[in-house]
Amino acid sequence: MSADYGISLNGIFVAEHSLNQAAQRIASASLTAPGESPDTVSISDFAAELLAINRAKTTVKANLKVISTRQDLDRKAFDLFA
After folding, report:
1. Most buried one in 22, 25, 48, 73, CB count within 10 A?
2. What CA dihedral angle connects 20, 22, 25 and 31, to 10 degrees?
3. How wide is the angle at C-alpha 77 spanned by C-alphas 72 and 82, nearest 5°?
């Protein structure tokens, strides 16, 4: 495996870890902070986690595109020598 694939795969694994952490924080979060009324939701914390999830999604898509592009280049190089 070339370094190009390894770097992209590592980026995917890091994004997956970030996604899992954000999902865990959302799942385990209390909807109210101590001292707040039960109807109050911490929108800023929830929004930050949604941004982390979106960032992870974008990171995975970008790294998959790098892998796809590298595979296309490898195929074209192989075709030149075949």
Report:
1. 22
2. -140
3. 120
